Amino acid sequence: MRFHTGSYGKDTIENNSLVTNLLKYPEISKAMIRQFPQYSLTYFLEGTGRFAKEALIGDSAFKWSVLGRLNRPSTCTGTQVGTGAANASLVVEFVENYLNPNDIVRFKDGSQAILLDGGSPSAGGTSYIMKLQTNDVAATLATSNTAAGETANTAGSVFEEGSNKGFENHVFPDWHVNYLTTSRKAKSITGTALTDVTWIENNGQRLWYFTDQNLVMEEYLYQLELSRWYGRSTMDANGVSQVVDSKGSALISGDGLLAQIDSANTDTYSGDLTEDVIVDFIANLSLNSGKKNNQWMVFTGTAGKVAFHKAMRDLVFQGNSLIYDMDSGRNLELGVHYTTYNALGHRITLVHNPLFDDPQLHTDLDPISGYPKESYRMVFMDMGVSNGESNIEVKVKGAGGVDRGMIVKYIPGMVNPFDQKSMVASNAKDGFTCEVLSESGLIVRNTLSCGQLRKV
User: Fold this and answer.
1) DSSP secondary-structure letter at 78?
2) How far is 371 from 394, CA to CA, in rounded Å?
């Protein structure tokens, strides 16, 4: 894609204008977004075509399922009848009803028991009859294993010879609901600025737009990026907005990325970032997500990039000792650009997110470095694809050929950008207005595979 400037004239007609073609061919907006890589989240989602196919519920809600790990732990209530000594049956009560007959249940201290039934409703949840999986008649199940809040999980199953059937695990997906957020921005273009246009050439096609639109595109994409990172839902459990404007109209917004992963994997560090801190965080993230050989994009600010660089430098050049041979009269270029790190079979790649650096948005500064504390935030995002679906996708409203991912339109005043001889104006301003609108929301399909590492 190539850009060059030009002048408004006989070649700048409605049929080859960017605005007209955006309405006819919404996919052009994806190419436009790729020209703004600084807006990293929007760039990686819309610029690479990661769009969700979930249907809308009503006007603005959409939901998706998150299966997470196949085995879910069962929570003990503190009720245990019997110890299991001498191969006797015992009963343990769990809050959930996840288990099946013949499941092997493993407890906190490593003791294991085989379920003899599928559980029955009881006062605190579901009670299961079981026998210890052991050949030691003196073995017992300590009550500390089944104290309230302790968890147990399945460790396989065991059946008799000639068994009739197996059982499925009753693990149902969690449902997440989010809402589309409408974002808008406008720019007034005066009659004087009418003559300056910019041409876009791509794959043999030439489209034009008014050069003054660059500013509104920058403002629009910046605000859209902020909304997708920091947005918070205004909707209650019944799908009713808790925020209305002065006219009583509901202001509907959905959760952005940070709000969706906020309760997933979050850790902090103090002082300098070290390789040990990074490895420990990757290990915990891997344990919680159950992922192997995963690749994470780590979105961070300038301070996070500096901290990561120093951690990698200290790993590679321990003691700050760097030895090299210098030939007389030879110009040397020194330095290493650290962006990727591999550990425990996983890979992380840093992506700069300038939103975390904005000093006007983030006024809480680190007293030592002077960077905004937000600039140290490192967001580990699983951008992988499973079963044809990206873990993180954007949902835009659209149907019947209408795509509300990016709508750009002109409102003519005393200047009509497509008809200078028109005798009709929408207002008396010497110029016209460019309006940009988006109605979209984010999906994070598996929040367990994402996380945040922050400096305190």
Assistant:
1) E
2) 31
Angle among Cα 420, 425, 427 to the nearest 5 degrees reads 130
Q: Contact 198/12 with Cβ under 8 angstroms?
A: no
Whole-angstrom CA distances from 21 to 17, 28, 432 are 6, 8, 19
Q: Which residues pair with 127 in a beta bridge?
A: 93, 120
pLDDT tens digit string along 314-331?
876 655 554 445 455 555
Q: Take residue 450 and report the two structure tokens written for it.
A: 């994402």
Are residues 211 and 217 in contact, defined by beta-carbon separation less than 8 angstroms?
A: no
Tokens of 423: 């005798």
| Cβ density class 314-348: b for 16+ within 10 Å, e for less | eeeeeeeeeeeeeeeeeeeeeeeeeeebeeeebeb
Of the candidates 92, 397, 449, the one whose C-alpha atom is nearest the C-alpha of residue 285 is: 449
347's tokens: 């890979």
Residues in a beta bridge with 454: 268
Phi, psi of 205 (to 5 degrees): -105, 140
- Enter the tokens of residue 304: 């996070």
The pLDDT, as a whole number, for residue 317 is 65
End-to-end CA distance of the chain: 43
Buried b (16+ CB within 10 A) or exposed e, 165-198: eeeeeeeeeeebebbbbebebebebeeebbeebb
Residues 6+ apart with CB under 8 A from 308: 273, 278, 298, 300, 338, 341, 350, 378
Degrees to nearest 5, angle at CA 431 with 426 and 432: 55
The angle that helices 275-289 and 302-316 make with each other, rounded to 10 degrees, is 110
pLDDT tens digit string along 200-248? 777 777 887 888 877 777 888 888 899 999 999 999 988 999 999 999 9
CA-CA distance, 222 to 185, in Å (whole number)?
10
Phi (first) and psi of residue 420, to 5 degrees = -70, -15
Give the pTM.
Answer: 0.74
Distance CA 323, CA 313 (A): 14
